[in-house]
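Morning, I've got a small favour to ask if you have a moment. You're getting the sequence in one-letter code plus the fold written as tokens. Thanks so much in advance, here it is:

===
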Amino acid sequence: MPRHKTPSADTCPVARSLDVIGDRWILLVIRDAFDGIQRFGDFQRSLGVARNILSDRLRRLVEAGVLRARPASDGSAYQEYVLTAMGRGLFPVVVALRQWGERHLFENGERHSLLVHKHSRKPVPFMAPRGQKGMVLSAEQTEVQKVP
């Protein structure tokens, strides 16, 4: 499924990940799938995307193993798209994007959707990489070990 094979994609997990999910519509389809949307028409209504673009992104996500297409659970002639284990593994990525957007792209007091824990109804705590002893790590405290 890689669409933009870059030299760094051979050894860089970020580049490989972007080859699969580095598209606005793909990330929004994944977001909607986490929100429970499964049918083509529902994705289209939610996103306002052209049918051909949505069809292409759903196909790409199925080919990559992020979504699985299956017959509709209600027995109708429709197909449903459900997250695979690989797709569900993107949940922290979507949460991190959401939290970054909340912190940097909204003015103080500006209304936006909120991700909450279903049972406590409290906002999901801010996600951050942590070291072995639980301390939050900054970028300056990490380094990438390049492949020789």
The beta strands are 67-71, 79-83. DSSP finds six helices and two strands in the chain. The longest helix spans residues 51-64.
